[in-house]
Queue: 4 jobs
Job 1
Amino acid sequence: MSKKRRKHSKKGYKRNSIRPLLIQVFEKHKGNILTHKEICQIIDARDPNSRQNVFDELNMLVKHGSIERINHFTFKSLGDSQYLEGRIDITQRGAGFVSIDGHERDIYIAPPNTNRALQNDHVKIKIIKEGASRDEGVVIEVIKRDKVLFVGELRISRKEAVLIPDNNRMGVEIIIPLSKVNGAKHGQKVLTKITAWPKGSNTPYGEVSAILGVSGSNDAEMLSILYNHGIEPEFPQEVIEEAEYVKIELEDSEIKKRRDFRDVLTFTIDPVDAKDFDDALSIQRLKNGNLEIGVHIADVSHYVKPNTPMDKEALKRSNSVYLVDRVIPMLPEQLSNIACSLRPNEEKYCFSAVFEMDESGKIYQEWFGKGVIYSDKRFTYEEAQELILGGEGDYSSELKLFDKIAKVMRKRRLKNGALSIESEEMRFRLGEDGFPQEVLIKTSKDAHKLVEEFMLLANRHVAMFLGKTSENEQKSTCIYRVHDTPDPAKLDIFSVFINKFGYRVDLTQPDSISKNINRLLTDIRLKNEYSMIQSMAIRSMAKATYEIENIGHYGLAFPYYTHFTSPIRRYADLIIHRMLEDKLSKTRFKFDKGLDQVCKHISNNEKKASEAERESTKYFHTLFVQEYIGEEFDGVVSGIADHGMYVRMDENHCEGMVPMNAIPGDRFHFDQDSFRIIGSRTKKEYNFGDRVRVRIYEVSPRKRQVDLELIEE
């Protein structure tokens, strides 16, 4: 380690570590008058530079109105202070944004004021400056670390080792004594635990907990992604042992308690590589001419009981995580792929939502309850799509009937104001060595939409059954999947964005926003910019979350909505199954206390899973384009920021960045108001959607980054 780093680990305070300490001093000595000398003694600021930095920071606190100056060298707190608590999001540049329950806007934390808080930590803050657009605060205390385990590359020197974290938001390295490297070697990817962080040090200390492998290998990088997002790749031993005792065979005594659907035509439709089958559809014609359509969901609640090791671990994980080359399941494979999975030609327990309807999708009766099914056929999406488009094969007529009803329901949903979003999923074809051979874009076709509509139907009606009550009926507990109305500020950005392509849409009237966006997307469906505009439309919307208070689902235009259809991979659905069973049996749900915290926990873990999945995709993208360094590609400007512009290449669908200072021909800058890049001298502009040609000049899988250079016209 360098001499410079050792010096910073002693009591010599830099300005970027003083302000939070000073605020703590004034809070502890509330009402007392303190001199500059006394303050330096309290925080042990010994050397002249540190004492000067303390004085400079005291002046800044006076300027911000956080403390009062009595005379030149004497200060006093302003009395009672309001503390706020929330979760901090650290940017790559070291600043933080703390989200507070009940506050519409995040609180900005400047890099010097994060007080050693790390990404997603639960922190206590104090407002030091009120602003028109955003208040500024300082972290007083880290109440709870989101995690203490970090992944990175180990660098060993003669006297000590250092972990260089993979996560750019970590912000600091971790010093590891040589006695704590535990067999790890220089350059290896390791998992490190923070064991101490002295108050006088800007750097934490730790020890190696596990060796993940050779830095740069796919396995080590995927484990790095998981650990960096707080996702545990392995199950605890007690959970594995509990799963091993799960009975696979159905019991006659249990079957007698359930509705028997084994003689009703039932099948599943899933991706070609799926192993866990959450849902199945059944169909039969009734004597009155109507159809009885069943949405049958794996009965995970039969196997996973509350407060058991499997249940506690499932809650901790909250959801399965789907990386490019592996799945980290919420439940052990014994359940997710075998016992619970609705596999073809096997009898399985299920929780069902059954609807009597006609071919226009009008519902006459509904039934919810536990059942047993026999899946007659397992379709891949591709097989089902071929039959829907006119192919002949097993159950082709039933599939076409499902498709017909689904299209009617979808049309009705869009007419009611639902957003028309065509999902696009990036996939990779991997070779035997695990490296990507091809980039594929999977789009949503009729078969996907068929399954989606019937899952939406079940989720919506379960939510109404649990949430809507008559006058004489006691309100039952429910976890809702809610989606708030769009933020006007984000809609303004979206308007600027589509204006770059020559489109204008009225987004000022809340009741017509979704319909106007749908009309735009329909009009441009065959144009090159469709995918980019749709992605921006999605980013302009609020994020869906789990809540106990129902505000409806804006994107789907449903006043009631929940998640019922995927309990193998989502804990929220498992809770809903338990709630539904309790209401059907007229017993009170046992999870009333703390349910709000459970909603926050699973919503937060859903976000972590999404971030991990995106990072996994970025990593494999960098692997794919590594062999094309130096080659040129056509692309489109997909993002603009103050540090440069992002370009998505047509051929490989990969996004890279052209740094601002590397744009040739002029000195360019980012115009915040018009969201464009402008040349200072030539006034040349770069806007969203501009067609450009770029060359790949550097690729870093470790940073998940592709650097591009612009080829001048």
Job 2
Amino acid sequence: MTKPDQKTISLFRRIARVVAPPPKLTVSEWADQFRRLSSEASAEPGQWRTDRAPYQREIMDALNDEEVETIVVMSSAQVGKTEIILNAIGYYVHQDPSPMMLVQPTLELAQAFSKDRLSPMARDTPELKKRMAGAKSRDSGNTMLHKTFPGGHITMAGANSPASLASRPIRIVLLDEVDRYPISAGTEGDPVTLVSKRATTFHNRKRLLVSTPTTKGASRIESAYEDSSMEQWSLPCPSCGDHQPLVWAQIRFEDASMACKYCGAIHSEIEWKNGHGKWIARKDNSKVRGFHLNELASPWKRWETIIEEFLEARRNGTETLKAWVNTSLGEPWEEKGERLDEDILYNRREMYHADVPEGVKVLTAAVDTQDDRFEVEIQGWGAGHENWHIQYHVIYGDLKQQQVWMDLDEYLKRTWEDVEGRKFPIALTCMDSGGHFTNEVYRFCKERAARRIFAIKGEGTGDGTRLPLIIGTSTNNRYKATVVRLGVDEGKSKVMSALKTPLVDKDGNRMRGYCHFPLSTPERNRGYERQYFEGLTAEALHTRVKMGVPYQVWVKVRARNEPLDLAVYNRAAIEILQPDLDNMQPFCTGVIPNASSRVVGTRKKGVASKGIQV
């Protein structure tokens, strides 16, 4: 028998390397061996190390457990949840090629993920670069939202786009920020259910849901977590050794330490994090593993910083505190009570010693348009967005006649004085363009654009999906007037949060965003009588269920809600202006500091809308 030459041996070795099955690695082992972090997407570029954040290991390796079908991650920010998704993608591209789909809340976010996160990882991780075509490849299977590789492909989709979710069967379903998904993808139904059904034909299917939670009772990720093993990352007490989760209630503010709930011993952040952590399940569920993480576990966030951010959020009012609970503790926010008590607000009215109380720096106005009247409210704003209601005024008249429009114009031209005699004009007015006089409002506002009087149009989805308060602008009307599009649901939430904000916190520190209401005097009826407060509290946030998904909507509990609408429009006015309320001088001259070149406008359907020059 002839002995093979060296070239033949080398050839067979190369063939063996190609056809040999890949080593059996877990997702975390794959990441430790192959993953490279990109400089533009990571503060710590270079080789991936799971030991840097050891709580990630079991989350990733749950994907390798044959019993586990669904993994749920309810978490804060700053814990690396996006990296977990990226490692999962890298693993399946290299080790276990499969059809995958990654769903983001919107198609735009899906495109951003592909460009800013997936493409850099594929470029900088050699084993992925060999398998995934480059961003500029002529390969027809490679686009921004769809990338192929030997044995599989990955599609990036938006939960708001039914067409992007309509795909071939998918084995690996990756769902990011599910609490920001719409209730329904168009008319197709719940996007989570819609995509999950595409994996039913695979016996070895996997589904990963990741999100920061939102509101208790209306949070997708909270619901999924409660139907899972409900695991918590737990560290051993340096004194007694008993494992326990990192709980905010046990954190000591004075020295950024934590007390053990078993022995009471107090240890520093470093001492706690030096311990060997483990996941402790609160429920038995072999098919659905659920993990909860908060920022206290993060290696990238110091407890001292988290405490400072909490104190700042608490000072800034309910809305900011809600965001902190969601993004730092990774917990859903629980609303306290369904509706504000109008009597509490009515009874906290106070005496103003001038038209404009001390502390006010800018005045805004809001106009609600009815068939037989204008309802107008003037509000003042000071440092920390502290808010003073100045006057609620009704101008009666037939809106088909010119006189009532002239009366409104004169009212918006007037000034209000403080105790020093300084005169405050209205810095910006938002005027409702709904109802039966839309074109008349557009014409009125167009002629007064130089005085920053803008028409507004409220928009809502009706399914709990929150649009930002300032959505964008449009000039698509007969008079080419600038119309500001408002997300009224978000506006109502901001107003209600401000109304719930106390004047001082538990430590006696003045809170940011407190709302003041004036008492009327014999000389002046300010308009803040009981009827006003009944209108201000005329809506409540109710939880409803659509297609099995809970969501929250504002529901009228009284017939008249004009005061609430005007509060939203005034809130929009100050957000359009964006003055530096903490540092500016009172606006008595007609010039708003640092606002002369600001333009407000956003994109809609890929086209930049015309902005507001303020």
Job 3
Amino acid sequence: MKKLLLPFFIVLLFAAFKAPRNSVKTVMGIVTDKNDKTPLAGVSVFSHDKKIGTSTDKGGRYIITIPEKEQSLSFEYIGYKPLTLKIKGTVLDVKLEKEMASLDEITALNYEKKAVAGAPGLRGTVSIRGINQSSIIMNAPPVNESLESYAAINENQFRNAIKNPLSTFSIDVDAASYTNVRRFINNGGLPPADAVRIEEMINYFDYDYPQPKGHDPINIVTEIADAPWNTSHKLVKIGLQGRKISTEKLPASNLVFLIDVSGSMNQANKLPLLVSSFKLLTDQLRSSDKVAIVVYAGNAGLVLPSTPGDQKIKIKDALDKLSAGGSTAGGQGIELAYKVASENFIKGGNNRVILATDGDFNVGESSDDDMEKLIERKRKTGVFLTTLGYGMGNYKDSKMEVLANKGNGNYAYIDNITEARKVLVNEFGGTLFTIAKDVKLQIEFNPSKVQSYRLIGYENRMLKAKDFNDDLKDAGELGSGHTVTALYEVIPVGIKSAFSGSIDDLKYQINTKPVISGNNKELLTVKLRYKQPDGKVSKLIEQPVIDNRIPFNKTTNNFRFSAAVAEFGMLLRESDFRQNSSFDQVIRNAQNAVGTDSEGYRSEFIKLAKSAKLLAKDLLSLENKTVLNEKN
């Protein structure tokens, strides 16, 4: 009997140590025309069951992450014969053969080729992974990320502290960029450089700064240490902490859910996820709150008139009846939503439109400039705007950001129900309740200490020095309990650096050395202006910062973690200022700064950095292989 049981026990033991069921592998390659050997852009690449897919870039290259058990890949392209090949190793190059096509197919092919023209290399190619994803598109065609829209980012440069002693910018509490970047990486590709807004990645995370103690609703926290990517430079962290107000003490809300139900929203990770998200928000509402629902597709319409927040079943029933179809009359929807919000205005309350869409406005007022002017007009009514982005493929990030910036609101990208819970439940107060508006920062650098400086991120939030004291100049809003973090890289006086550049002697100024007044121990002074949510006159807060830097490994978890996120962003952007940055250093510094991570967001970041490291390595390997193929 023992002899019979022994083999059985060995089999069980072997099964216990098998690879996890959800283990994955990455396959890459180049798809070309079989006859002329030209690369084919926009070829659909599928797993066997078509639950996972991607498309080739303009060089015919693809990368796809699939379950380890997958044995074959399918390739489909209009005008070419479909092909299924067995997977042998990690590289699978493909040659597709042309077939006779109908006129409709040729027209569609030409349109598709135009759509993918200019795709930014392998950045942006996507595989929809069917493993542990709550928002998977079942049996849908692969996503073509080249149709997505991102505003160009020109990185902040180092500025000379003598010639430019002031750095002025609006705060940014948006966190959409991090979630969107996470979506790209989790789907097996690196994001386009312009999708990486470093300040939004940093501000995705909560930092346990001290709560304000005085009458001001904002507290300023600063810290200085060596920059991890260049230890001869300093890194200065400026943190803001908004006063946290408990939910029961928050003012009553007058909310209008403005929901895009156009045809582009007819995907599992768009309207169905949106409805689930708004149900979570509905559960947070009180009897003193009220909600209306406006939808728009070919036209705009009122689905639910303003309804008390404790009538949750009625609100959720209205959400459940939504379906997608038609074109996108975004301008009409915004007009109607603001009209409904104004008709139900609560004086002293939180009056807000919550726009949920993929940003693909294509009927009526559709250009970024048109939408910006519309929102600027509407914000004068005292109604704020929150934008929630959903989906992929035709996602218009640039437009979503413009709407939030100009609408006295914030912007979040929701890629799964967990992120919806973070934004609409865990950060309910910060997302929807403004405690200070038009918040601006102006940093004055001491030129006897600072040779030059660079603000990391915030490129689209920069202001002129004179804008700081101009109360008519719009700036960012701070919500209940929100934190804002900004990082400056500083080159101290006496350090030789190519970033500082050289300036010829001036002809009309003999004394080019700074005239020092005040405390020479100060590295810089932080000045902050803000208004009350219903105020028109700003208040000034001023705080000097003494040059007392400490070793990087002795800084707070907040400092080290925010530095790791900034370094990660520079690597993803392939920044000119990344210097000695590396994924290994990002991972190491983040691991040593996890601290109290009750929701697991920091731990998730570490996993994301590890995935990005592998993807960057795979991309480099594929590019090297392509170069060799071209030489041969």
Job 4
Amino acid sequence: MRTHYCGELSAALVDRTVTLCGWAHRRRDHGGVIFIDLRDREGLAQVVCDPDRPAAFGAAERVRNEYVLRVTGRVRRRPAGTVNPELRSGEIELLAHEVEILNPAAALPFQLDDENLSEMTRLSHRVIDLRREPMQRNLKLRYRTAMAVRDYLDAHGFIDIETPMLTRSTPEGARDYLVPSRVHPGEFFALPQSPQLFKQLLMVAGYDRYYQIVKCFRDEDLRADRQPEFTQIDIETSFLDERAIQDLMEGLIVQVFRDVLGVDLPQPFARLAYADALARYGVDKPDLRIPLELTELTDVMRTVDFKVFRQAAELANGRVAALKVSAELTRKEIDDFAPFVATYGAKGLAYIKVNDRTRIPDGLQSPIVKFLSTEVLRTVLERTRAQDGDVIFFGADKAAIVNAALGALRLKIGQDKNLVEKAWRPLWVLDFPLFEWDEEAKRWSAMHHPFTAPRDGHEELLESDPARAVAKAYDMVLNGWEIGGGSIRIHRAEVQQKAFKALGISEDEARAKFGFLLENLQYGAPPHGGIAFGLDRLVALMAGVDSIRDVIAFPKTQRAQDLLVHAPSPVDEKQLRELGIRLREKPRP
């Protein structure tokens, strides 16, 4: 029905007759001449409808926004002074010979160029939202990213292998989405949280370089970078150690950015141990573009008179840390930070404003100065390298609370005060603990997943001292977003059983949940490991958007609803009876 896309027209086609199909983006009647901006996925072309062509002109008079049109005409140069340099087709226009209305359109629920749309409106009318240029740009970016990933992995010997969407429920950290079986009443499939177990089994089967761009499902609380269904670039290899995998995957991301954005990421990527990331930035996915770091003060505060600092320093898992800020802060801004950090569990936010660092304590402005000795204050200034005009914020509590509060404050101040460097700052975070203590359940849980291998020589710590066991795990972080995480896997059945025991998973439970994995690990499992990148997060970063919903064609809301098709939705009683399911009223809290 067409010879070209609208956005493909250029001066090279002048005097050619072409046929375009698309939507009437805008119609303008200039007193005898009608202009129509015709739009398709590749861009806009200006169509000129002249009264000298009565049939075409008559059709153009009936056209309204978003009508679907087929236009045939001659490409000509625009008159001098009317060239639009922002359009690929901006040098030319199409003089219409024929205009065919393929389908009229009802009035849209919103204008495509409206930049103040609520997300509720956009998601309720997602099909119309997807016509907007930002969404078309984002989804094409996503496509090019996926193709660049496939090209790189194919060139490095990886094979794309599908794994099942209907599998068994296994404890992997989040809640499973369950699918009832009609054929086996009372039994359920689960949608995969990841292909983790299957890709390990593929390594046992000898497919030593596997990948898959795959949907995964987790029934968890949502936020801007989470969806109940999301897309992973899932990768597994055999006979490669941690560094070899990291180098290979670093090359993947470098190639993707070069091919898709024309950007050369700095290489080699920075490398940071997990413990150092928490100590310096408060989080395990630090944004290195912000030139602010935490300073350790726990040792200094163990003997001070200030009770808040001393008690935190004396806790077995306590921490006192400082965040020095070299930016102009008003008293109101400083006061407003206290309720901000309270959302992360902090009970308060002490500070010192440095007016004259040579005069201690008189040159320091703060309610807490009188509780700290001159020697302690001098140490604080030396360690933070504070200068006149700086403000030092303090966190004192359990280490987890201090890290969360000061880490979030670091980000907020960096963004509010325009301290964020305009750059790409990739990072590998390494040496994660194998386990973390679940205070509520009073047991160890896997920091990554139960199949992560311990560092060589740490196998015995699985039984004797799980807190000290370090994982062969690694995360790739970019500008404060974790875009990928992976590890070397446990490939020996006896080590896997020790890991299950440390996690409080009994032999019977392990056999019931993971018997197929444990059995196949006995049949010559090779050393193997891999990584999974979040495609949605990666594309969101590349597109410069704040939410992964802006790079997914049909996303869910933060309440896990699809406003376009109104899902989830009730099903009729007949379907439930076929599945042997009876609904109960949810008890009131």
